[in-house]
Amino acid sequence: MARILIVDDEPAMVEVISNLCRERGHQPFPYSSSEEALEALAKVNPQLVIVDVKMEKVGGFDMLRECREKHPQSAVVMITAYASVETAVEAMKMGAYDYITKPFKVDELQLCIQRALDYQAALRENTYLKKELRDRYKFENLIGTSERMQEIYKLIGKIADTDSTVLIQGESGTGKELVARALHYNSARQHQPFVTVNCSALPENLLESELFGHKKGAFTGAVVDKIGLFEEAHNGSLFLDEINSMTPQLQTKLLRVLQERQLRRVGDTRNIPTNVRVIAASNEPLKSQIKLGGFREDLYYRLAVIPIEIPPLRERLEDVPLLVNHFLQKYAAHSGTEVKKIDGKAMERLGRYTWPGNVRELENAIERACALCENDTIRTGDLPPHVLQDSEVLEAQPEAEWQVGQRLDEFVRNQERKYIEMTLRFNQGSREKTASMLGISIATLYRKLDLKHHRI
Ligand SMILES: Nc1ncnc2c1ncn2[C@@H]1O[C@H](COP(=O)(O)OP(=O)(O)OP(=O)(O)O)[C@@H](O)[C@H]1O
Ligand SMILES: [Mg+2]
User: Fold this and answer.
1) Which of the residues 130, 224, 354, 405 has the least number of beta carbons within 10 Å of its own beta carbon?
2) How far, in Å, CA of 406 to CA of 58, rounded?
3) Structural domains of the chain ordered from first start
4) pLDDT of 146
5) Of the ranges 57-71, 275-289, 418-432, which is most confident?
6) How far away, in angstroms, is 25 Cα from ligand 1 center?
7) Which residue puts its alpha carbon closest to atom 28 of ligand 1?
8) 202: confidence class by pLDDT, cuts 50, 70, 90
């Protein structure tokens, strides 16, 4: 049974949450006045505080600050309105354990309470105390407040301080390296080296000696002893980028090093102990490579102790404006010029493009626009032509036509065709990708589209 302090100036909300806590065998301390709640804090000494962000007088953030300062062992969960995702992120940065957006489902709240209590129990056991709580969300370089990104921030916060191997997967340009850095620089290893190696950049034997080092005379050209990147990263983190291009033989060697926590330099007989946190990245789903026989399943499971999936930018287009502003400032700082503005139309176009090259492509588009733009405001004419073309096609999409009096099969066919065409545009005209996304064969795709009549 846990003591749970609940503060919301909507009494109905307080009651709902209190009842839920009671049902679950906890002891709720309900308050609809934040001032009274604040006074009661010391006396109640709750394991968990659930507090609404928006309240009169003493606001949710003041409560949060007070809790963090005077009662660091109470976990805090914030309740926010739908519209204020930024507020939620701010709350996490200030050390709230979690937040939940209104309206929420009972299950959702209950899960959130349970997780917070588990975490708080671990806190009491002193396992998490090593690290200042409020440091957990210092990810200055990672921009984006979409739900998917927030999940990633939370995950980084939770696992940064463990030694578990992490596998980061996502399309090219989604920010895998940034996430790897955030993991390292938020971990206890932050003052130790962060070493990166791109596994696709070197042929197999060179990569092997690059990773594990070699002994003088091990092969032609090995004129001196050389320590490898594993040893360089000792006590720190090693980022194995594009792990998908590692050959099966080398995968086997890597697996052995990870399992035995010791390595052998090429041509040497000694074993050298290693203490390295490995973070691997792949821009292709490794699971499908396993099926094709290109990646060892056992290595996959050894790497993906904690998997992080970074979504493509097109699945979080709401992050585009923030990223654009970030890159405008970055460009200005680099070039020593004033920060450029961007007009609404241009921003809208950027928010409607599918970004096959993800954040990197967006960054390049902004850099290009800044360089081209002759005054202080970027307009649509400064954007790359393909971005304009693509976002225009989407704009020209007709509204769904719902006519009464149509035969049902005709209607279904029509809607089906529109949906297929939209998917085709999304895949930039690739019929293979479209067919696979829709789960139909190419032949079916052709038939359904009656290609003679439809330009794609
Ligand atoms: N969330 C983000 N916030 C700010 N910048 C980002 C974000 N994601 C990516 N970037 C920027 O986009 C560029 C590409 O990111 P990064 O190199 O981390 O991608 P990647 O997933 O490793 O790509 P690749 O698979 O091609 O190596 C970098 O300049 C990075 O700073
Ligand atoms: Mg990369």
Assistant:
1) 405
2) 60
3) 3-137 (3.40.50.2300), 147-309 (3.40.50.300), 313-395 (1.10.8.60), 408-453 (1.10.10)
4) 87
5) 275-289
6) 46
7) 360
8) confident
